[in-house]
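Dear support,

I submitted the protein below through the web form. The confirmation email said the job was done, but the results page showed an empty box. After a refresh the structure appeared. I'm attaching both so you can tell me whether what I see now is the final result or a partial one.
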Amino acid sequence: MASRDRTARVAVLGTSVQRSRNERRPPRGRNPQVRRAILLGLVLLALVLLTISFRSPTSGALHSVQGYGATALKPFQVAADRVARPFRDGYDYLSGLTSAKSENAKLRRENRQLRAQAVAAVDAERQLAELKTLVRFEELKTFPNQYRAVNTTVISFPGTPFAQQVTIAAGTNSGLRLNTPVVTADGLIGRVTNVEPNTAQVTLLTDPESSVPAIDVTHGVSGLIRRGPRGTFILDRVPKEAVVKKGDVIVTRGTIDRRLPDYYPRGIPIGDVLSASPSDIATFLTVQVTPYAHFDSLDVVAALIPTK
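What the results page shows now:
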């Protein structure tokens, strides 16, 4: 019996179970067809509902169903709105912050441009006023004869307290030469000591090596204008017996002897006498002169070019 049962069990286990030929799997092409049919049906249903809704905009069974549905879904809508509100507020805040930063940067650029334009306008207006003053100076009877003015601007100032030269935007192409006198509408400031085609270096009267033959037009006393203390000039070489008083006008003396021509034409204003006093230890009279020109704010100047 044992052998028979074992044989039967082995026979059963060893027997392969075969499916019936009648059991067949569903065809693979049926599922896509079903999905397409369902999608088509949903599209048709949506078109029908839209048509009904448009034909009965204010009443009808469809609107009643919509009302019931909206009432039933309103709690969910309120809950979803409360959940989404912090995220929506955060997004609006970040979006507004980014927009504000962009707008702020744009306004700063516009502000810089407007400030630059305003500064340029103020500077141009000031230069125009100085040019008008120079033109009026050229029309005066005291303007030196046989000279013409080349109006230009100062483009470089002294780099150190000991340097007393400026650079102007005119050179040999405009008729400037060495020793060409340079003035402002107020008075003499110096002469050209180095010249290029389009620029020239002007050594100011405040230079320690500068000296200008000058005359007190009030009393006819001659001397040499040199640099003095605290922004003043000294009318040097004035005899002690000469009469010089406070307020006398000092101008350039100009050429006296044709064989020894002076750099500066006669009559260019230099300054007023501040004080005149004798000294027991000095050979000459001590005469301090306040200059007319403002050497610390030079901008528009004129170079005097001989017409002959």
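Response: this is the final, complete result; the empty box was a page-load delay. The radius of gyration is 51 Å.
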